[in-house]
Design goal:
The protein is an alpha/beta fold. The chain is built from three helices and three strands.
Amino acid sequence: MTLVMVVDDDQDLAEMLGIVLTSSGFDVDLVSRGDEALEVFRNNPPDLVLLDVKTHKTGNKVQKLKNKKTGNIKQEKYKKRKN
């Protein structure tokens, strides 16, 4: 099964994403801090990472995740729309 790691310090949002992903047939790891994400990534590499780059204690951990050689990595950036 495909494993998705959700890294977000907004617990409600992370749980909602987890519910949607699980009901769609994905396995999900929920992580609330950037520094924890790197350890989880090393121990159980996911197929996809959904990362809120403004998550608490992310710092240079994001760059370390980006630099990991795990195959074909595609990075997308999404900006919040202003109404």
